[in-house]
Each structure stands twice: as structure tokens, then as C-alpha cells.
Amino acid sequence: MSDIQPEHIVVVMDGNGRWAKKRHLPRVAGHKAGVNATRKIVGNCVNANVLALTVFAFSSENWSRPQAEVSSLMTLFVTTLSAEVKKLHKQNIRVRFIGDRLRFSAKLQQKIKDSEELTADNTGLQFNIAANYGGRWDMLNATRNILAKVHKGEMRVEDLTEDSFGEQLSLADLPVPDLFIRTGGEKRISNFLLWQLAYTELYFTDTLWPDFSDNDFKLAIEWYRGRQRRFGKTGEQVNDSSNLSQGLA
Ligand code: FPP
């Protein structure tokens, strides 16, 4: 059993569409309600002293949704950033985006840049928004960077290790995620941080993202605390080393 706090939490915020449908509202109303739930989990992470929170706001695959939904999501991103970033900055939160931002409109790219620049020196919660992100894209991008380095003679093929590969991925300066939360009932990773999730504890809940409450956050943290993180070792080895570190063995 571990009683430690997750340092890095990542979230697939699923279920906005179904939340809206249940209320006979357009899907975008679900995404708007989803923004409120995102604000709430940011507050919970700040209160719980979590180091980093990474949310999946828009996947590389989401472009294939109906054009009207994609464009209302883009508008929502711009309005949300305009409305929220100053408040995040006041709370010493650093905002960063991961993913291929070049496909976004010039206006959204500018908002992203402004948000990152304004909050760049903040030392509180590291809040990362994955937008036009995919885990496979991340790994391809890392591979391209490495090949370019090899081509320029800055790196030798023999120097490629898990560590040097990992350094080229998004969020390489943060600890890998401890806890993955997916709302909305599906049990999939959906091309989120594929490399980084190798040893992450995976938590799935049927709660739809707009309904994800303070209590749901607490339940996820309690579930995490009940997990035994083995990193490939046996349960006995983990228990022995935890007894040793507590002076019990
Ligand atoms: C998945 O639910 C949700 C999305 C694709 C969008 C999530 C975006 C937000 C909550 C806005 C956050 C904004 C910022 C700037 C952080 P779904 O539409 O797939 O739901 P369904 O499975 O019920 O159809």
C-alpha cells in the first residue's frame, strides 16, 4: 500500500457529449460544462499540492468530428484562455500546451503563446493542456529530433537509450504520470501519453466529465493510495523495501 500523493495526474476528460445529450442540449454545451469541471480539478490539484496536471483537451483524431463541433471547440479554447489565464497566473500556475499547435488558427496559436509566456516563471501547479496531441505523434516527433541530431553529428546511434529518447518527448522535464484518470466509462488510453504511461496507475470512472466533482477527485486519490506500485518487482520485494525505508526490517 502506498500513502503517497501522486505528483503528476493526467486526465482524459470524456463524456461531455453524453452529458449534453442527456439534457437535450447541443454537444458544445457539454464542452462548456467540461470547462467548469476542468477549473474544479485544477483547484483540487492546487489544494492537494499536486506538482503537475495534464488534461487531454483535443486529440489528433478529434479533427474528424463534425466541422461544426470542431469549430465550436476551437472558439471555446480561445474564449476559455482569454477568460482564465490571468486567474491561473494569479495562482502561480504555469500553463503549457503539448501537441502540434501549427494546425490551429493564428489567433489560437497566439493565445497559446501568450498564456505560456505570461505564466512561464510560475512555480505552482504545472498545468499542461494536450491539444492536437497524440502519443504516436509525440514519439514520431522525438524520433525525428533524434535523427536530426544524429545527422548533424550531435548524437551517436549508440547513445540512444530509454532516457535519451524520453528526453525528446513532451513534458520531459516533469516526472512521468503517477495517476491516469479517464471519465465517461470507456477503458482506453486513446493515444494519450503512450510512452509516459508505461507504469502509470490507470483509474476509470463512469462519471461523465462535466459531473466530475470534488468527491470524485477524492475517490480517485484514495484509489491511487490503495495501489501498490511495483515497477516490475514482486509484491514481496516492494514490501521489503518499504519496510526497510520505514525502519521496520
Ligand atoms: C471528450 O468528450 C471531450 C473533448 C473532446 C473536449 C474536452 C475539452 C474540454 C473539457 C475543454 C477544456 C478546455 C481547456 C482550454 C482546458 P466527448 O465529446 O467525446 O464526449 P462523449 O464521449 O460523451 O461524446
Characteristic key phrases:
249 residues; alpha/beta; Undecaprenyl pyrophosphate synthetase; six-stranded parallel β-sheet; 45% helix; binds farnesyl diphosphate
Q: How would you briefly describe this protein structure?
A:
The chain has 249 residues and is α/β, with parallel strands linked by helices. The chain is built from eight helices and six strands.
What can you see in these coordinates?
A six-stranded parallel sheet has the order 3-4-2-1-5-6, sandwiched between helices. The chain has one domain (8-211): Undecaprenyl pyrophosphate synthetase (3-Layer(aba) Sandwich). The two termini are 16 Å apart. It has eight helices and six strands; from the N terminus they run βααβαβαβααββαα. The model has no long low-confidence stretch (mean pLDDT 94). It is globular, with a radius of gyration of 19 Å. The protein has helices spanning 16-22, 27-47, 67-90, 106-119, 135-151, 162-166, 214-225, 235-245; strands at residues 8-12, 52-59, 94-98, 126-133, 179-182, 201-204. Bound molecules: farnesyl diphosphate.
